[in-house]
Design brief:
Helix content: 10-25%
Strand content: 25-35%
CATH superfamily of the domain at 26-110: Immunoglobulins
Number of helices: 2
Length: 143
């Protein structure tokens, strides 16, 4: 009896179940307009990636599908400027499982400011000449 229990245990140990999992360790500073390489492992079949937003899983709202029918283990995503700064999550789905990424805040790209010196602005500014014409009252004209 002990022998069959050990055999069953050994056979069970040989049968390892793999499950879809994302492999990105860092979901910090995801920036609008900046590419992010999303990676995963152990998919059973093609993978689809869906962007959802909301603070808790019960309140998630689907934003849209990022990609579907992916057979590779990575996808390069560039967050669109149409997305708002908010808390998001990426749902990974294969034929038998779905998992969520870490929640992340999508941030706006930093704004770059260019300064121009007053001298260069003055040099580039157009110049105007104004001529005033006064009536000549001394000769009786203009009256």
């Amino acid at each position: 009896m002990k022998s069959s229990a050990l055999t069953s245990l050994a056979i069970g140990a040989l049968h390892v179940v793999t499950a879809l999992r994302f492999t990105n360790p860092n979901f910090n500073n995801i920036t609008i307009g900046k590419p992010l390489n999303i990676t995963w492992d152990d998919a059973s079949g093609p993978v689809s990636l869906t962007l959802v937003k909301g603070g808790t899983p019960a309140l998630f709202a689907t934003v849209g599908t990022l990609a579907s029918d992916l057979t590779a283990t990575s996808y390069l995503w560039t967050p669109s400027s149409s997305l708002l700064r908010d808390t998001y999550d990426i749902v990974f789905r294969d034929s038998s499982n779905s998992v969520h990424s870490f929640q992340f805040e999508l941030v706006n790209a930093p704004i770059s400011v260019t300064t121009t010196s007053a001298a260069s602005v003055a040099a580039a500014a157009p110049t105007y000449t104004t001529t005033f014409m006064y009536p000549n009252y001394a000769n009786g004209a203009g009256a």
